[in-house]
Amino acid sequence: MQAQVKLGRIAGISIGLHYSWFIIAFLIAVSLADHFHTVTPEWSKAVVWSAAIITGVLFFVALITPHEVKGVDPERWAQTSVQSAMRPLAQLQTVTADTPAMQALEIMSRNDINQLLVVSNGRVEGVLSRSYILRYLQTHAELQRR
Question: Where do the domains of the chain lie, and which CATH numbers do they carry?
Answer without folding.
Answer: 1-87 (no CATH), 92-146 (3.10.580.10)
